[in-house]
Design goal:
alpha/beta, D-Maltodextrin-Binding Protein, domain 2, 2 domains, five-stranded mixed β-sheet, 13 helices, signal, Solute-binding_3/MltF_N, Solute-binding protein family 3/N-terminal domain-containing protein, NMT1/THI5
Length: 341
């Protein structure tokens, strides 16, 4: 649970942001000052179809947190074939929830991206194996097959991190591209293990009745998971709106932690499948697995990012042959300027 003092502080901050970001003084016919407000229109991008993992954003919209912060927010889900940052860079979106590792890789391609706040404070990457598997540690992956969607994206980076943490190399593990069929691959035994996420693949397998175990990545893994991404150009041109977006989204995450049922209800207005009892139960399990990711080591929700993790991620990804298309300074792809209270 989020301490009451945190929630109180979050709402107080949002109220002050609202006044600072979008209020202007005017004078009435009687000479008395009057307050006029105008909300700044922003579009928040979510990288796939409605899902309870995005409930912090849904709550920020439904509970009026964006509005209180002086924002007229529109939440937009990406199309299935849409690039992570396409709409952001074209100006169709102003803000997107996407993984920090993919933002850093995109920045090496010359994309003007900057992470302005943490969405997840922990990485959800896990190696999933059947309960009867002889694999009990990451080191046990030596000589065995590890299924990944493909040699791209967050799952691939997490697989590489797992291999490094095990003291192995990619020559020691058979990386096998299986698409997004982790559950079937484990059920059919087509690979020895799969790389998945603790609040998605693992939950789906458990709900389906598969007897599996998860081996997590280390807490200090050199990867940044879901983060609040915008362009540096937009952030610098709209500093108050950027701060308001970060703080309101983080306050939405605090609400999801403190009131999971409200988070489920908010998601259900966007995902009609949650009207089914079984589907809602699965979404609840996903949310329960997501909540620990939203909280930092102090058991609080905070948008403040770990600059050291970003720096280590930059070094780690730079060692992957052919991954980065140019030199990139991780400290230029993240900032806490808008996250610190």
């Amino acid at each position: 649970m989020i301490p009451k003092r945190f929630l109180t502080g979050a709402f107080a901050l949002l109220a002050s942001l609202s006044l600072a970001a979008c209020s202007t003084a005017a004078t009435s016919s009687t000479g008395e000052p009057e307050l006029k407000t105008s909300a700044e229109a922003v579009t928040v991008g979510l990288t796939y179809i409605p899902n309870v993992q995005f409930s912090p954003v849904y709550l920020a919209e439904d509970a009026g947190l964006y509005k209180e912060a002086g924002l007229d927010a529109t939440v937009r889900h990406h199309g299935s074939d849409e690039g992570l940052f396409t709409a952001l860079l074209s100006g169709e979106e102003n803000f997107v929830i996407a993984s920090g590792d993919e933002a850093l890789v995109a920045a090496s391609q010359g994309m003007d991206l900057v992470s302005v706040g943490a969405f997840y404070s922990h990485h959800p990457g896990v190696v999933i194996v059947p309960a009867s598997s002889p694999i009990h540690s990451l080191a046990d992956l030596k000589g065995r097959s590890l299924g990944i969607p493909g040699e791209y994206g967050s799952s691939y980076f997490a697989a590489l991190a797992a291999i490094q943490e095990a003291g192995l190399t990619t020559e020691d593990v058979v990386l096998t591209s299986i698409g997004y069929t982790q559950r079937a691959a484990i059920a059919q035994g087509s690979v020895d293990a799969v790389l998945g996420f603790s609040n998605n693949d693992l939950v789906q397998m458990q709900v389906a009745g598969l007897d599996v175990r998860a081996i997590p990545l280390k807490e200090d893994t050199p990867l940044v998971a879901a983060a609040m991404i915008t362009t540096r150009e937009w952030a610098q041109a709209h500093p108050e709106a950027t701060r308001a977006l970060v703080q309101a989204t983080s306050a939405g995450a605090a609400l999801a932690v403190s009131d999971p049922e409200k988070a489920l209800d908010s998601t259900a207005t966007r995902d009609e499948s949650l009207s089914d009892t079984n589907t809602r139960a699965t979404a609840k399990a996903v949310l329960e697995a997501t909540i620990p990711l939203l909280k930092n080591s102090s058991d609080q929700v905070s948008p403040v990012q770990d600059a050291d993790t970003w720096a280590r991620m930059g070094d780690f990804l730079a060692k992957v042959p052919g991954l980065l298309q140019g030199p990139v300074d991780a400290s230029k792809v993240m900032t806490n300027e808008y996250a610190n209270n």
